[in-house]
């Protein structure tokens, strides 16, 4: 099944956009064409078999004057968002002998009945209300060329639309655009445009992508759509307007506020590629800090706040007053990183380490806040950090950007994700909410007990191997499991490290020609651990793998740095080696 969008001009003098999505929601074609023959050829080539086609143009027009019932009904919902439909009637010469959209649908053998479930069908769609509903916009985006709109404004609005559409990569059903060469070409045209005519080259195919996504919704999730009008008098299918969404252009004061939000949204959309790169850099930085310290964790991931999420937050009000006067400068969570650990004590270790390696501007323990209210519930540590001045040259994309870091255990994460999915994305009947609240609270209490038990289990395991004695077995390589058990005894006060780090360290030990735990123990007896501690001046307690890493670096020096397994971190090791030797760095 393919999903096709056609942004159809009423005549052949202006270009029409054509976009095609495959069954996985990935863009596989986008182009601008003019004639009916070109439209027919493009659709037939990209979607030769089963397809749903969303056409942004009237398919059925039977009224002699005024607007169709569908246009009046849609206008009652969307006109306040400046997304109403233009009137169409047979008095317009373009519709005297039928509609261009209807003729193209018939030529492609598409059933135009909105209730049809045939494998080849067409629906009339309209991008402006679709974007308002999909992205919860207070007003439609102003990317169409009209008097008074500058190139910069049109470009900013079109870039906003691009980022909003790209954010559907995490939606259901998914829309996959960034991997498409067709999409990359459209984004490049918009980003580099200096004239309105250049923007127009991309505008129609981008509108066609919206049409294609509505066609995808019509097939995969029709309950999310509203059909205005009917097959007899003409209809328009569009995503349903959220019941709690309000238009942003009302009184002069609200219009002024809407202009501020729109300007911030455009600026954010322009900067978004850099913010995405900064988010990737933040993940790499924080994971590197944890890895370098040898701390154990499950995952580190992150994201840049989407344009839609930023716009929604920028428009928030408290008691009728804007929460953010200058959204671009005041919204501090545009970059978010999440660290998932195994047990709660690891959360504290991560917080302590980030406190030493970054500048912590805010630290909230939501678990403590919840407990102070005498209840169980959401538990997570939230930090707001930024990198030190001396680290900015190495991480230029981060510079002075703020980074929001969430740190929680895997059990806390599971509870938070499930609770959010059910409570905020699901629909809980009002009469059942007290029972759901009680059950969520009970689950939170049980998970807190489970977290405590897992901590106890790990502590007992560590104490149980604290007296481990190196085996004299003649194996030609120390396994990661053996190394983990040995290090738990060698460095009894050190935190556990990640399982894959034990395997990596076992490989480094093997590269050094150390073939047994007995050989490793003999080598470590020649190492002055107190001198290492003094020279390294650890700001946080290092993990077991980091302790051994520094011991090997101290003992073997440049030979250790040159190992194949260390090729990815030569510069860092050389810096640490200088510290171990008491040299200035």
Summarize the structure.
The protein is α+β, with helices and mostly antiparallel strands and about 575 residues long.
What kind of assembly state do the chains in view correspond to?
A: single chain
Helical percent range? Answer: 40-55%
Largest sheet: 5 strands, mixed
Taking all Cα atoms into account, the compactness measure Rg is: 30 Å
Give the strand content.
5-15%
What is the element layout, followed by pairings?
Layout: E1 2-7, E2 16-21, E3 27-33, H1 36-46, E4 51-56, H2 69-78, H3 100-107, E5 120-124, H4 127-135, H5 151-166, H6 181-192, H7 196-220, E6 225-230, E7 234-239, H8 252-293, E8 299-304, H9 307-314, E9 317-318, E10 321-322, H10 327-330, E11 335-341, H11 344-357, E12 359-365, H12 366-372, E13 381-386, E14 403-409, H13 410-425, H14 433-464, H15 480-490, H16 499-511, H17 517-524, H18 529-536, H19 544-556, H20 558-561, H21 570-580
Parallel strand pairs: 1-4, 4-5, 11-14
Antiparallel strand pairs: 1-2, 2-3, 6-7, 8-11, 9-10, 12-13, 13-14
Domain RelA/SpoT: 302-430
Pfam families: DUF429, RelA_SpoT
Protein name: GTP pyrophosphokinase
């Amino acid at each position: 099944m393919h999903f096709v969008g056609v942004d159809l001009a009423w005549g052949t003098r202006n270009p029409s956009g054509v976009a095609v999505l495959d069954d996985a929601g990935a863009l596989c074609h986008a182009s601008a064409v003019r004639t009916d023959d070109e439209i027919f050829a493009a659709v037939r080539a990209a979607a030769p078999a089963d397809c749903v086609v969303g056409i942004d143009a009237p398919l059925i027009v039977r009224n002699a004057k005024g607007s169709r019932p569908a246009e009046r009904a849609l206008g009652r919902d969307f006109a306040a968002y400046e997304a109403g439909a233009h009137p169409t009637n047979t008095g317009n010469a373009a519709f005297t002998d039928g509609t261009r959209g209807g003729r193209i649908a018939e030529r492609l053998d598409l059933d135009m009945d909105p209730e049809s479930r045939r494998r080849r069908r067409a629906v009339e769609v309209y991008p402006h209300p679709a974007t308002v509903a999909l992205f919860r916009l207070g007003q439609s985006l102003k990317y169409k060329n009209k008097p008074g709109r500058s190139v910069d404004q049109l470009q900013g609005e079109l870039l906003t639309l691009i980022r909003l559409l790209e954010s559907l990569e995490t939606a259901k059903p998914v829309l996959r655009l960034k991997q498409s060469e067709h999409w990359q070409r459209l984004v490049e045209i918009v980003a580099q445009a200096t004239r309105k005519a250049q923007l127009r080259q991309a505008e129609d195919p981008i509108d066609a992508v919206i049409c294609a996504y509505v066609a995808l919704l019509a097939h995969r999730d029709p309950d999310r759509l509203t059909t205005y009008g009917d097959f007899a008098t003409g209809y328009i299918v569009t995503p349903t307007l959220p019941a709690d969404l309000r238009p942003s252009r009302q009184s002069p004061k609200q219009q002024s506020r809407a202009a501020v939000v729109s300007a911030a949204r455009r600026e954010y959309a322009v900067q978004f590629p850099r913010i995405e790169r900064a988010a990737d850099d933040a993940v790499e930085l924080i994971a590197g800090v944890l890895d370098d310290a040898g701390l154990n964790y499950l995952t580190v991931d992150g994201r840049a706040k989407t344009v839609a999420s930023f716009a929604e937050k920028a428009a928030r009000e408290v008691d009728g007053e804007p929460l953010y006067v200058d959204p671009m400068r005041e919204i501090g969570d545009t970059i978010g990183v999440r660290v998932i650990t195994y047990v709660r004590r690891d959360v504290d270790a991560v917080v302590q380490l980030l406190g030493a390696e970054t500048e912590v501007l805010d630290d909230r323990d939501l678990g403590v806040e919840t407990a102070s209210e005498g209840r169980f519930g959401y538990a997570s540590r939230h930090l707001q950090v930024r990198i030190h001045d001396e680290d900015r040259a190495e991480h230029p994309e981060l510079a002075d950007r703020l980074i929001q870091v969430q740190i929680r255990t895997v059990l806390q994460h599971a509870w938070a994700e499930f609770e959010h999915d059910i409570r905020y994305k699901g629909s809980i009947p009002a009469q059942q909410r007290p029972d759901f609240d009680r059950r969520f609270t009970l689950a939170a209490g049980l998970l807190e007990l489970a977290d405590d038990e897992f901590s106890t289990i790990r502590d007992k395991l560590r104490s149980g191997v604290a007296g481990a004695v190196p085996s004299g077995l003649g194996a030609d390589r120390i396994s990661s499991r053996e190394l983990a058990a040995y290090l738990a005894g060698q460095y009894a006060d050190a935190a556990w490290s990640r399982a894959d780090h034990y395997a990596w360290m076992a490989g480094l030990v093997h590269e050094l020609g150390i073939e047994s735990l007995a050989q490793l123990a003999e080598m470590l007896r020649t190492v002055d651990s107190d001198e290492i501690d003094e020279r390294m001046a650890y700001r946080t307690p290092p993990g077991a793998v980091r302790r051994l890493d520094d011991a090997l670096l101290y003992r073997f020096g440049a030979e250790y740095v040159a190992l194949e397994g260390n090729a990815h971190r030569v510069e860092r090791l050389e810096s640490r080696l200088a510290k171990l030797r008491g040299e200035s760095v």
